[in-house]
Design goal:
The structure holds two protein chains of two kinds. By secondary structure, chain A is of the alpha+beta class. Helix content of chain A is about 45%, strand content about 25%. In chain A, a hairpin with a 5-residue loop joins strand 3 and strand 4 (about 85-95). Chain A is elongated, with a radius of gyration of 28 Å. By secondary structure, chain B is an alpha/beta fold. Chain B has a single domain (about 5-130), classed as Response regulator (Rossmann fold, 3-Layer(aba) Sandwich). Classes of the chains: A alpha+beta, B alpha/beta.
Chain lengths: ~350, ~150
């Protein structure tokens, strides 16, 4: 009866041995991979996929170590006609005599999802490229404007008069502001262009890097940075995550209340999503939650430039970096009650780095 | 005192004027030649009877990019000892890494404003004087002829 359930299932299913040799394939698997049953069972699972990062060897050892019986991974299958079949593969181990004898693979079709993910990624890449080029090309005329305006100011001081002098100063101030915005656009696009985010680092070292970069302002404002509990080891790019902390701390210092800034950082595991939730809480001005989406926009600000200088890109960059790590970032706040920012970051390996 | 021959490789005529004016305002005795693209720069370098003492090299140039010009200069036995300063708007990491990879002598971002340019040029000049008064390396056995530090083709 189990055999019939296997064969008639609408989900493609394969049974392989721990070396990857295909022992059995159901009807749907033959149809999806466009191979006959006889052909399929002559193959090794490896020959169906381009990369087999840990499906066989890695997972088998994982099963053993953690006594896990079921595991899910994503895999790209090459179909016989040259097309591609993306599957979310649910792997179940079958044990005999205390060791893994077989693995049951159930392949859920996620080809459509993967294709739209690819389209979005391509659009994003093009946009990044555009921002990158634009930010460079925009600076070029700016050097001319600033150069000639200051040359005019220097060489023709007497003929342009006091008012003319004042106007030129305004022009030069504006070019400096523009330069800052262009540089921010550049770092914004850079935050999205970094390719590899699969490093492993201790979150504490990222906090430390942010603290170092802000050392002068931290000292000048008597800011207290308090880490509550232990910070875990996480997966991602250390300097990018340091940038997230730096931008959050920097806002806490800038938008401080009457007391010196007191920033609390802590990390809590979030079981159902295989990630950590990082909390950064301050005792600053806070803001109306009505603005909670706007604050993450590029060049968005809640105060005028006279009240608080800056271009208003810090949180946009933080959001981009967190999303690059497949995480989320969100705030809670109330005017006068400080702000708390939360973001998620992947755990290095489920079940290992509990502290 | 002898004048310093400076070759400025710059396609943007406005930036070229600003450098010319900044040099004029500085106390440096100099003569300035401007090449508006990479090919012309190399032409001047290969044919000139008097070689420049210093090259200021933009990166984003029509035809041959500044990086390629740099590569050819540092590969050429006769030219490789002329100091080359990259003077550019680009802050692309790729450009910085490649420029130093092909042995530029310094990488300088174009400053915003005339005063900044004056300052940068005076730093470049003091660098040049230090460089020029170093013992001449006539006995340098092998000029860097194989300097492709596996940085790709561009």
């Amino acid at each position: 009866m189990l055999k019939a359930a296997f064969n008639n299932s609408a989900i493609p299913q394969l049974i392989i041995d721990p070396t990857g040799t295909i022992l059995d394939a159901n009807r749907q698997a033959c149809q999806t991979l466009q191979q006959s049953h006889d052909d399929l069972i002559k193959l090794n699972h490896r020959s169906l996929v381009d990369e087999d990062p840990d499906l066989i060897s890695g997972l088998a050892s994982k099963f053993k170590r953690d006594n896990i019986l079921n595991w899910t991974t994503e895999q790209k299958y090459n179909v016989d006609d040259g097309s591609i079949f993306w599957a979310r593969v649910s792997v179940t181990s079958i044990h005999e005599d205390g060791r893994i004898s077989k693995l049951l693979l159930q392949l859920q079709d996620i080809t459509g999802l993967k294709q739209s993910e690819g389209d979005i990624q391509r659009n994003n890449d093009e946009l990044e490229q555009f921002v990158y080029i634009a930010s460079h090309d925009l600076r070029e005329p700016l050097t001319s404007i600033a150069g000639f305006a200051s040359l005019l100011k220097k060489r023709h001081k007497d003929s342009i008069g006091v008012e003319g002098h004042h106007f030129l100063t305004e022009i030069l101030d504006a070019t400096k502001r523009m330069e800052c915005k262009i540089d921010d656009l550049l770092s914004f696009s850079r935050a999205g262009r970094v390719g590899v985010i699969d490093g492993v680092f201790s979150l504490g070292s990222a906090v430390e890097e942010a603290r170092r970069n802000l050392a002068i302002r931290i000292e000048a404002t008597s800011t207290v940075l308090e880490i509550q509990g232990n910070l875990p080891t996480v997966q991602g790019d250390r300097s990018l995550i340091a940038q997230v902390f730096q931008n959050l701390f920097s806002n806490s210092i800038k938008y401080k209340g009457a007391d010196p800034p007191h920033i609390i950082i802590k990390a809590e595991p979030c079981d159902d999503e295989n990630c950590w939730v990082i909390t950064v809480r301050d005792n600053g001005l806070g803001f109306d939650m009505h603005h909670r989406d706007r604050i993450f926009g590029v060049f968005q600000r809640l105060y005028t430039i006279e009240e608080y200088p800056g271009t208003g890109i810090g949180l946009a960059i933080a959001k981009k970096i967190v999303e690059r790590h497949h995480g989320r970032i969100w705030p809670t706040s109330e005017p006068g009650q400080g702000s708390t920012f939360f973001f998620t970051i992947p755990r290095t390996d489920v079940g290992r780095d509990e502290k | 005192m002898t004048a310093i021959n400076i070759l400025l490789v710059e396609d943007n005529p406005h930036d070229a004027i600003l450098v010319r004016e900044a040099l004029r305002d500085s106390a440096i005795a100099h003569s300035l030649t401007v090449a508006s693209d990479g090919d012309r720069a190399l032409q001047i370098l290969y044919s000139a009877e008097v070689r420049p003492h210093l090259i200021l090299l933009d990166i984003n140039l029509p035809k041959k990019s500044g990086i390629e010009v740099l590569k050819e200069i540092k590969r050429d036995r006769a030219l490789c000892l002329i100091p080359v300063i990259m003077l550019t708007n680009s802050m692309s990491e790729d450009d910085v890494v490649k420029s130093y990879g092909y042995h530029c002598n310094a990488y300088v971002r174009k400053p915003l404003g005339f005063e900044g340019l004056l300052e940068v040029l005076s730093i470049i000049m003091s660098f040049w004087f230090t460089y020029a008064t170093l013992p001449k390396q006539d006995d340098m056995a092998e000029p860097p002829s194989s300097i492709d530090p596996s940085l790709g083709s561009s």
